Amino acid sequence: FDINIALKPAPEHTCEHVCEECGKCLDAECTEEACASKCEGHKPAAVVINGTNYSEDQAEAALLALQADDVVTILANATIAQEYTFVAANYTIGEGAVLVAQANMVAPAGAKLTVSANAKLVVEAGVTIDISALTQEYFATSTQARLEIAEGATVIMPAYTEQLWKDAYLKAVIEAMVADSAIGAKLVLGETKLTKTANGWEAEAPAAE
């Protein structure tokens, strides 16, 4: 006689521990085939480039690939070290963020740079940051922002900042912003070239004609 036994298919496994960000399984002990792809965790975004988020680990490669018309935001409280050689068209350093400049940066004409409250731009030794092409309309910085220039490093500011330096109150504001700079740091404000000494910021004597 014939015996026909109908085998019922095993019930399809439904993962109950799905990562909302990537859709992979969060249960490391689950061995079901449907859960073979495990979520390895996600680091918070540190940089946004043209609307795409990047963690601090991903930021270096993304920043090296910047184009001149890109829009970049370093998010609040992130710390980013950069090695690329120019500033994008629209660049924002968020509140409390730290940007460590490890290579020369030149802001292209028409670019916009915003430095938020408690943000810090650290310029390492031997590096030159040239934002002289920025107009007053496109350079916004909080009075609570900080610029830390290492010995032998140079920051070339927009030409209009020379007039700010000549105003006693605004000069004090600028000095507070660069107070963490090292002796031997250089700050260029238009035709005024300053060097940090033990006595503060001293202007270089004009070149003899």
> Which structural class is indicated by helix and strand composition?
mainly beta
Strand content: 25-35%
State the strand order across the main sheet: 2-1-3-5-8-11
Largest sheet: 6 strands, mixed
Low-confidence stretches: none
Distance between the termini: 118 Å
Put simply, the count of helices is 3
Average pLDDT score: 88
Radius of gyration: 26 Å
Described by the principal axes of the CA atoms, the overall outline is elongated
Order of helices and strands: EEHEEEEEEEEEEEHHEEE
Compute the number of strand runs: 16
The percent of residues in helical segments reads 10-25%
Please provide a written account of the structure.
The chain has a six-stranded mixed β-sheet. A hairpin with a 2-residue loop joins β1 and β2 (52-55). Helix content is 11%, strand content 30%. It is built from three helices and 16 strands. The protein is mainly beta.
